[in-house]
Recover the amino acids of this structure.
């Protein structure tokens, strides 16, 4: 590389009319040479500092030295604590604030067993779920809803809750089917924020849909013992009425026949 610089410089001296391109090339070579020289000098100094007396070999920096500090136990504990805080935060978003803020937050395994993350003061339980697993949904559940959910997980012939249960899934969900509660192979269905009234509903008698919708109400798992009312959206959506408020009616388009 040094020879290239010398040749380029000599060409400039022998020919006063050297092109602008030659000048650019010679400057680039100069930068390359000086950069390489500086790197070599720095390497030599580092080698001299690390090499033992009378040796030409460079000592490798041990991986457990201060240059490569190991992750401390404290940092691991902080990391685990942050994960737990995020699980609690997300679980509480699954239900209306009025119930979620005082609910117990717990992780629930596939058998319905609970690991409490934060104790609450009301009878509700909010679960963070797992967004990487289809059907492992963030939800807030009341006692009868918990009976229904555990019966479903146990694949019982029918739910055993003795009064209507409630489950909120206001973070949305994914599941395999809206007709078969035990489907584990169909492609995932994305579902928006919704809540459920867990009690047998007859779709035909109620005049309700049995097909998944992104708004409105349907009977999920219609015709099975697990049929229940599925309502898209939050019951807390919309503006509160105040005396004297006027109604504002909106227009929608209908599809042409």
């Amino acid at each position: 590389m040094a020879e290239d610089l010398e040749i380029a410089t000599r060409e400039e001296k022998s020919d006063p009319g050297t092109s602008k391109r030659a000048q650019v090339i010679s400057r680039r070579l100069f930068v390359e040479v000086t950069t390489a020289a500086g790197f070599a000098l720095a390497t030599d100094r580092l080698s001299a500092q690390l090499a033992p007396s009378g040796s030409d070999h460079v000592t490798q920096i041990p991986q457990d030295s201060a240059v490569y500090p190991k992750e401390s136990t404290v940092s691991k504990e902080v990391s685990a604590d942050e994960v737990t805080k995020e699980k609690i935060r997300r679980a509480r978003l699954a239900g209306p604030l009025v119930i979620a803020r005082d609910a117990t937050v717990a992780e629930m395994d596939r058998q319905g067993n609970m690991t409490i993350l934060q104790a609450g003061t009301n009878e509700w339980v909010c679960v963070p779920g797992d967004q990487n697993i289809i059907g492992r949904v963030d939800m807030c559940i009341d006692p009868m809803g918990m009976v229904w959910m555990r019966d479903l997980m146990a694949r019982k012939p029918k739910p055993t809750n003795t009064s209507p249960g409630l489950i909120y899934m206001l973070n949305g969900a994914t599941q395999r089917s809206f007709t078969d509660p035990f489907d584990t192979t169909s492609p995932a269905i994305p579902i928006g924020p919704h809540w459920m009234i867990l009690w047998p509903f007859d779709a035909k008698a109620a005049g309700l849909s049995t097909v998944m919708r992104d708004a409105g109400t349907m009977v999920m798992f219609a015709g099975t013992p697990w049929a229940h009312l599925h309502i898209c959206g939050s019951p807390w959506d919309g503006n509160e009425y105040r005396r004297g408020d006027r109604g504002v009616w909106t227009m929608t388009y209908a599809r042409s026949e």
